[in-house]
Amino acid sequence: MNIIVCVKQVPDAKDVRLDPKTNTLAREGVASIMNPYDQHAVEEAVRLKESLGGAVTVVTMGPPQAEAVLRQAISCGADSGVLVSDRAFAGADTWATSYTLAKAITTLGAFDLVLCGKQAIDGDTAQVGPGLGVRLGIPFVTCVQKVRCADTKGLVVERMMDDGYDVVKVDYPALLTVVKDVNEPRVPSLKGTMKAKKAVIRTMNAVEINADPALIGLPGSPTQVVKVFPPEPRGERCLLTGTIDEQVEQLVGKLRPYLL
Amino acid sequence: MLHVDKDLCIGCGICEEQCSFGAIKVLDGTAVVGDACTLCGACVEACDVGALALTGTEKSRKMELGDWSGVWVYCEFRRGALASVSLELLGIGRRLADLRGVGLCAVLIGHETGDTAAGLIGHGADTVYRVDAPALAHFTDEAYGAVLTSLIREYRPEIVLAGATAMGRSFIPGVATELDTGLTADCTKLEIRAGDGALLQTRPAFGGNIMATIECPATRPQMATVRPRVMKALECDPQRTGKIIDVTPAPEQLQSRIQVLESVVAEGGNVNIQESDILVAGGRGLDNEKGFGLIRRLAGSLNGDVAASRAAVDAGWIPYPHQVGQTGKTVGPKLYIACGISGAIQHVAGMQSADTIVAINRDKNAPIFDVADFGIVGDLYEIIPKLITKIEELRGV
Ligand SMILES: Cc1cc2nc3c(=O)[nH]c(=O)nc-3n(C[C@H](O)[C@H](O)[C@H](O)COP(=O)(O)OP(=O)(O)OC[C@H]3O[C@@H](n4cnc5c(N)ncnc54)[C@H](O)[C@@H]3O)c2cc1C
Ligand SMILES: Nc1ncnc2c1ncn2[C@@H]1O[C@H](COP(=O)(O)O)[C@@H](O)[C@H]1O
Questions:
Q1: CATH no. for residue A128?
Q2: Which of B59, B85, B202 to mutate to test the interface with A (most CBs of A within 10 A)?
C-alpha cells in the first residue's frame, strides 16, 4: 500500500484573535501547527500501513518552514516527507493548490490511497480534497468519520452527512478526507522523534513537479481576494438586570415573538 | 508578488497595521514581506506613498465572459425532501438575476422528486432542469457531479450557487475543478458589483475572525457555496409560471466508482439543527448528562431543538450531530439560547448569524455575552426552570 497524506501548516486558530485596537488578526507569537484534521489523516494512514503493509508519504505545499509539519508526521509514524515549495506557488487558491498537489503526487509515482483533512482551519474551505480527487482522476469520499474495514483492494467507510452518515464502498486508488471522529492521533514515540529529526525531506519546486506556470500561484488561481475586513460587531451587549425572577420576566417579554 | 519599492518606502508602518495576516513588517526603515502574505492587497491600498504594488496578478487563463449568462441554483434533494437552503438560494438567486437582467434556473437532481420542481418555480425560478433517475436516489459525488457539470457546460450560466451543506461542500468543489473555474466556500453575502456585474462573494475565514470578499475575474461560471440560514427565501407564489425541463442524463454520467451500501439517520440526530428556527444549546456548564434533560424541556416549551458546544459533545452528553461551531454545524436559527456555554470563538463561529441570541451563564465576563442580544448572569439550574414555567404560563400549557 502506497499512501499519500496531504498536510498543511496553519496558524494555531485558538491563538488567533482580532486585535480590538487595529481590527486586524493579532498573529504575533501565534504558533504554526499541523492542521488538526491532517493529524487525523496521518494517524489513519499509519494505521492502514500497520495493518496492510506499505509506506506513508506526507506531502505539503508551503514555505520552507512548513517542513516542520512533515517532521511531525514522521514522528507519528509516516515514512517520508515531501516539501513542495516555490515562490511561484504564492497566492494559490484551492484550484491552484489542488493542481500543484496533484502534479507533485503524480511525480512521486504510483499510489493506492490519498488522505486529506476535511478542511484547513485557516481558510475553512474543504475544497482541496475533492479538487485533488478530480485532478488525479480517482473517486473521493469526503468527511469520513470511520473506516469500517480496509483490505488491499479497497475500503468501506462511513462518511458524515448533515442528518447522519452514509456507508460507502470504494476501491483503490481513491482519496478520502477525514473528520476528527475517525481516530485519536497518537503521541510521537521517542524513536519516532529521533527518526523525524534525522529524516531527509525531499523538496520539489515548480519545475521538478512539471507544473504549467500558467496554472500555479496567484496568476493560476481563478479566484481573487478583493477585500479583507473584520466582521461587523453584533451591537451592544445587553445584560438584563434585577433579581433573577425579574430578569426571567423581562426575557420572556423579549421572547414573546417566538412564543406565538 | 507584493513588491516593495525601497526608494519610495518611508517605513511609516501603515502597511504593517493594515495587514490582517501579520505578513509585513518594517525592518530598518523599509517594509519587508513575509511568507504569510496572501496577496490580498490591503496594504497596497493603504500605502500613502505608493511604495507597494502587487505584480503578476493578471490571471493567466481567460474565458470569453460574454458567452456565459444566467443565474443557476443547485437545489439539494435528499431522503425525499428538498433542503431548505435551496429555497434560500432561490431567494438570493432571484435578486442577483434581476440585478443582472437574466433568468434564474434551478437544477434539481435526485429520484422521485414528485412536484418539487413546481415549488421551485413558485419560489422564484424561471426554469427548472429536473434530472430524476433511479440511479440518483443515493447521493454520490461522481454521478451528481457529472450531471451538474454537463448541464453547466451545455447552458453556460454566469453564476452557480449551491448550499454549503455536507453534500454541496463535497461535490461542488469537484464540479468547479472539472470546469476550471473558481469556487468560494461557505459564503454569507453575495452582491453584484455595479459596473462590470461581477459577483462579489463574502465569507468568514479563520473561524469567523475575519471576513474576505472574493471575486472570480477571468473564468466562468462564478461559483459559490452558501451557508444555510443566511439568505432569505421568497414567499411561495403559486401563480408564478416557469418551465420545467426534464433532462435525461447520459448513462456514463450515472456511473459511480463509489457504492452507497447504507444511508443512516443518526440516532438522536434525526433533527438537522441547521433547519431549526429555535435552538436551545447546552455546554460544559450543565456539568452532567442530565443537564440536557433541562435543555430538552426548555427546547420543548419553545417548540425548538437541542444543540450543544463541543465540550458537551466531547463529554459524551449528546451526540455529535448536535454540535455547533467551527468543527460542528453552522446554524442560523431565529432564536439561539446558549446555556452554560462560554462563547469560545470556535463556538461563536457557528451560531453568530442567529437573529436573536440569548445567553445564560454565571460568569458575567463570559465572551458569549459579547454576541448575546440578551444575557442573564446566573445559575442555569435556577434560571431555566423559572423560564420554562413562565413560557408555559404564557402559552397556557
Ligand atoms: C480547532 C478547534 C475547533 C473547535 N471547534 C469547536 C466547535 O465546533 N464547537 C464548539 O462549541 N467548540 C469548538 N472548539 C472548542 C472551543 O474552543 C471551546 O473549548 C468550547 O466551545 C467550550 O465549550 P463550553 O462553552 O461548553 O465550555 P466552557 O468553555 O467550559 O464553558 C462553560 C461555561 O458554563 C458556565 N457555567 C458553568 N456552570 C454554570 C451554571 N450552573 N450556570 C450557568 N453557567 C454555568 C461557565 O461560566 C462557562 O462560561 C474548538 C476548538 C478548537 C481548538
Ligand atoms: N498547501 C497544502 N499542502 C498540502 N495539503 C493541503 C494544502 N492545502 C490544503 N491541503 C489539504 O487539503 C485539506 C483541505 O484544505 P482546504 O481545502 O484548504 O480547507 C487539508 O486538510 C489538507 O489535507
A1: 3.40.50.620
A2: B59
Residue B23: give its domain's CATH number: 3.30.70.20
User: Structural domain tally of chain A?
Assistant: 1
Q: Do A94 and B266 touch (CB under 8 A)?
A: no
| Whether residue B191 is found in the same domain as residue B84 | yes
8 Å CB contact between A177 and A129? yes
Query: What pLDDT does B337 receive?
Result: 97
In this structure, the answer to whether residues B204 and B347 fall within a common structural domain is no
Assess A31–B contact: CB distance below 8 Å, yes or no: no
Cell of A31: 504558533
Q: Is the CB of A119 under 6 A from ligand 2?
A: yes
Q: Which domain holds residue B324?
A: 268-395
Residue B10 lies in a domain: yes
- Residues of chain A short of pLDDT 50, as ranges, are none
Q: Classify residue B135: in a domain, yes or no.
A: yes
Give the ipTM of the model, two decimals please: 0.86
Residue of B nearest to A161 (CA): B166
Looking at B254, B279, B314, the residue that finishes a domain is: B254
Q: What long-range pairs does B312-319 form, CB within 8 A, spacing at least 24?
A: B312/B282, B312/B283, B312/B284, B312/B286, B315/B284, B315/B289, B316/B289, B317/B282, B317/B286, B317/B288, B317/B289, B317/B291, B317/B292, B318/B268, B318/B282, B318/B289, B318/B292, B319/B266, B319/B267, B319/B268, B319/B269
**Same domain as B284, residue B164:** no
CA distances from A137 to A99, A106, A112, A173 (A): 12, 11, 12, 9
Among protein residues, the one with the nearest Cα to ligand 2's atom 8 is A8
User: Domain residues for A61?
Assistant: 2-215
Question: CB-CB: which of A126, A162, A244 is closest to B382?
Answer: A244
pLDDT for residue A28: 58
- Nearest Cβ partner for A170 among B258, B270, B377: B258
